[in-house]
Write a structure and sequence with these properties.
The protein has 173 residues and is an alpha+beta fold. It has one domain: Nucleoside Triphosphate Pyrophosphohydrolase, CATH 3.90.79.10. The chain has 4 helices and 8 strands; from the N terminus they run βββββαββαβαα. It has helices at 57-69, 120-124, 134-144, 153-167; strands at 2-6, 17-30, 33-38, 44-45, 48-50, 74-88, 95-108, 128-132. Strands 1, 2, 3, 4, 5, 6, 7 and 8 form an 8-stranded mixed sheet that branches. A hairpin with a 6-residue loop joins strand 6 and strand 7 (95-108). It is globular and about 50 Å long. The two termini are 17 Å apart. 27% of the residues are buried.
Length: 173
């Protein structure tokens, strides 16, 4: 299992307010490929998103997988790791934002899909689910990491993709 903290805010004052968010991310492998969300800019991120108040991590992940990928029959298995990111809040310069992302190995139990239900920024980025190799995702993200503002997920997702590559969780079981 992996765990890391990414981001060290520059000039962070100790009296800053903290804003916290918990997120869940799905690691879904089939036939040596991983299911990721691909944007119109060419970057990749894991399907998943924020946990709503009163929602369990597993319930949030099943909901997010259905909303983002359209796959409605998914089983959440063991946790693979946690990544915590800290940075100055984009919307309030007096706050430090901390997001903790929980990654779980998941399995699709069939290929039934429904239409995607994307959030605003996901629709703007024309996010689509795509099966790719770990190397395709890592290389695609690396080639774009310095090209866009507010694209912190590339560092996070590539950290996880590299950890998965080390762990060889993509091998068929």
């Amino acid at each position: 299992m992996f765990e890391t903290v990414l981001g060290k805010p520059k000039n962070a004052k100790t009296e800053l307010k903290m804003k916290y968010r918990t997120a869940v991310k799905a690691v879904i492998f089939q036939n040596h490929k991983i299911l990721l969300m691909h944007s119109n800019r060419g970057d990749f991120k894991f399907p998943g998103g924020g946990v709503e108040e009163g929602e369990t991590l597993h319930a949030a992940l099943i909901r997010e997988i259905a909303e983002e990928t359209g796959y409605v029959h998914c089983v959440v298995n063991e946790p693979l790791g946690i990544v915590t990111q800290r940075h100055m809040d984009l919307f309030n310069e007096e706050s430090l934002f901390e997001m903790t992302s929980h990654y779980f190995r998941c399995e699709l139990t069939d290929s039934e899909k429904v239409p995607q239900q994307l959030e605003g920024y996901e629709s703007e980025l024309e996010m689509v689910p795509k099966w790719v190799t770990l190397d395709e995702a890592i290389n695609g993200n690396e080639s774009l990491k310095d090209q866009f503002d507010n694209n912190r997920w590339i560092e996070r997702e590539n950290y996880v993709l590299r950890e998965l590559k080390k762990l060889y969780v993509y091998k068929e079981r």
